[in-house]
Amino acid sequence: MEAESVATILCTSKQTRFNIAAPNYRELDIEGLSITVTSGPRPNAKGKGKAKQSEGTEILTNAKLRLKAGQRYALLGRNGTGKSTLLKAIAEKLIPGIPEQTRIVLLQQTDASHVNVDDAPQGSSPSGNESRAATVLEEVIERATSKHEVEREIEVLSSGIESGNPYGALRGLRKLHYDRLQKELFLKDKDARLRSGARGLQARKALTAIEKKVAEFQSQYEQRDEDISPEDLARETTEAADLLADLQLQVDPSKLADVETRAKKILTGLGFSDEQLQKPVSNLSGGWRMRTSLASALLQEADILILDEPTNFLDLLGIMWLQRHLTFVAESADPPTLILVSHDRDFISLCTELLIINHKDLTYFHGDLPMYESSQAEKKVYLTKVKEAQEKHKEHIQQTIQRNMREGKAKDDQNKIRQAKSRQKKLDDRWGLEVNAKGGRFKLNRDLPGYHYTSRAEIDIPPEQKPVSFDLPQPTELRFPGALLSLEGVSFRYPKSTKTRAAPPLVLSDINLTINEGDRVGILGLNGGGKSTLIKLLVEETRPTSGTLTSHPRLKLGYYSQHAVEALQRAGLSEPGLTALALLAREVSGELDEGELRGLLGSLGLPGRLASDVPVRKLSGGQLVRLEIARVLWRRPHLLVLDEVTTHLDYETVAAMRGALRDWPGAVVLVTHDRWFVRGVVEGLVDDDSDGGSDTLSLGDGDETPRRRDVYRVRGGRLVRLEGGVQEFEDSLEKRVKKLMDM
Q1: Selection from 471, 474, 609, 490 nearest residue 545 by Cα
Q2: What is the pTM of this model?
Q3: Helical H runs in 162-196?
Q4: What pLDDT, on the 0 to 100 scale, is given for residue 193?
Q5: Does residue 105 belong to any structural domain of this protein?
Q6: For residue 90, which of 51, 116, 61, 126 has the smallest C-alpha distance?
Q7: Over pLDDT 70: what percentage of the chain?
Q8: CB of 637 within 8 A of CB of 558?
Q9: Residues 590, 596: Cα–Cα separation, whole Å
Q10: Whether 681 and 671 share a structural domain
Q11: Within this chain, do residues 425 and 540 fall inside the same structural domain, yes or no?
Q12: Three-state SS for 390?
């Protein structure tokens, strides 16, 4: 069976012949899943006849998608392996085998304006006009209850019943049925256009049936009053009254009050103030719209909840609250099945299962990410040793067989020849695994079902994945000592507004910070605390109101902005043919040749044709991060100021960057909400185990000079050093998280 999205996604899977009377909509068990992303249909060579599908990129080939009800899955995979495509295929039910009744809610990291949901009533969106004028609270409630649509239907029925016209109730009922049929017709038509193959045939049959139903009701809808029989009038008047009562129950004040209470609790947990709840959604920035979308997803009733990088726009308080909230929901009586994508390793620790997409296949692991990485490493070491030992043993047996064969032929000893041939056949047919997957002795009829050329499976060592490339160039020499950057008594307030005479409050007050070569400084804080202003001062995008900021005369500073990816996306759209190599060449103005530029891009994971042939507008978020880092590093800076640099990256790239920055001899100022990343880069932890990790790494191999590793918190405009580092900051937020959960 086959299905196709309107643009690019083709899905196939094996289907059971058995009728499952009562399926569990929170579970998926799909065999033989293949997903291909294409560039859409293209005309045939002669330009006539049916369009042909262009060749595509395979995401999955004959994989098994198995989700158990109520479990929490962390979806892992490198950038470009197809995680977002898989999630979209699940959410849009393009995969044959996903029941249409399954309520699936998807939050996409690339969509900051709305949550994509299925067409079930529980997830229907408000109309466009209502959505544009809605406040944050109204928007979230509407997505969970379809309140406006229900109220509109109540208004239609109430107007007819209360009109005094004996035919008013009937007309209102028929108007409501007509509107519902038109909506259903629209959805069936959309479904038929989205799908192909056997599922497309079913969708077209359903479309034909609803078209027939609409045509039949049209004559009834346009029927004149005098042609309506008294029996129909009485029956439909009663139906209208009953339906009105049902609709009024759906918007019962007590029920809506409960929904509103839950919505406020979720929005407050995600950082919204009471004042922000009443602001129009259209006035929000992209980050706050994403939070609104996340709140909508969390409030809706869902069988499968899919969250793709939900922490991208949250501060640490919001991340910790969301982590606690999802854990609380998972422990409830009837939790949804959760699929989570996140580069934040501390955050995904809430998941109990791993779903790994790699080599066009899906694999599963029960446990967390450190356990998985440890087990994979151990398994590979064990299998490698077993295979090497078997190969030596096999070589010894082969030599013995060859010697016996030579001696048998020389002496015309047929018994020895037959014995040698028998041993050779056994070597060819029964060589391989000696233990099964559970560690017991291998048995053919139990451990290797089906037909095979040999009676034992080969020892399959997991293929060596090419390590994520992330090499940082050495900073240039300063030639004479001195602090790289120094802030002494720095304060900052925005200029006085022309509308008011009062001076605006201080954003930063009495900041003292000195950064020397090799230092590691982490800056933590909640949104609105002054981190962004402090960063702008450090990179001299703005000047202090009072105090002094001095820098080393030969300082080369590299700044990665949290808005860098969006800026590159805009640049790519304005110049459709612009490539990463061309953009970088234009900026270096001849200071580096093409070979050096390619070497830099390649060391950061943008090699060969990816750098020179693929336009910037077609690069993924993770690839754009690498390009921006190349723009920062080509000058070989002494100091890196990194603001939310891990956003858009997969967990393996984050780990590679963590290791590279930890060992780099230059100085780093890091602003991020990723606790695991700060522990590695700033605090120097090699392993962040459950016990907190105790292994530290001093900067600079062979450098006896101790390096400073400080974590600061910006709060209320003041910069305070945290003696306990990241853990102290996390502990300070625990009480607030608990209070938000108990609201």
Answers
A1: 490
A2: 0.77
A3: 168-194
A4: 75
A5: no
A6: 116
A7: 81
A8: yes
A9: 11
A10: yes
A11: no
A12: helix
The answer to the question of residue 598 being in a domain is yes
Which residue has 């959410």 as its token pair? 91
In a domain, 411, yes or no: yes
**C-alpha–C-alpha distance, residues 60 and 238, integer Å:** 54
Phi/psi for 344 (5° steps) reads: -85, 105
CB 523 within 8 A of CB 712: yes
R_g of the chain, CA atoms, integer Å: 32
Q: Is residue 586 part of a domain?
A: yes
3-state secondary structure 580-603: HHHHHHHHHCCCCCHHHHHHHHHH
545 and 663 co-located in one domain: yes
Count: domains in the chain = 3
pLDDT band at 27 (very low <50, low <70, confident <90, very high): very high
The pLDDT tens digits of the residues spanning 494-514 come to 887 666 666 778 889 999 999
Full domain range(s) for residue 376: 370-447
Residues 121-139 pLDDT 10s? 333 344 444 444 688 998 8
Q: Is the pLDDT of residue 232 over 90?
A: no
pLDDT above 90 for 642: yes
Give the tens place of pLDDT for each residue, 249-263: 877 777 788 888 999
**Helices 564-574 and 621-633 sit at what angle, rounded to 10 degrees?**
100
Residue 268, H or E segment: helix 253-269
DSSP-based three-state secondary structure for 110: coil
Output the six-digit token pair for 231. Answer: 């029996």
Judging by DSSP bridges, how do beta strands 104-107 and 304-308 pair with one another?
Answer: parallel
Residue whose tokens read 């890196």? 640
CATH number at residue 535: 3.40.50.300
Helix (H) or strand (E) holding 508: strand 508-515
> How far apart (Å, rounded) are the C-alpha atoms in residues 661 and 407?
64
* Region 732-737 average pLDDT: 92
DSSP H or E segment with residue 365:
strand 361-366
Encoded tokens for 151: 């109220």
DSSP character at residue 280: B
Q: DSSP for 317-358, please give it.
A: HHHHHHHHHHHHHHTSSSPPEEEEE-S-TTGGGG-SEEEEEE
Q: Are residues 537 and 626 in the same domain?
A: no
538, 670 contact by CB (below 8 A) = no
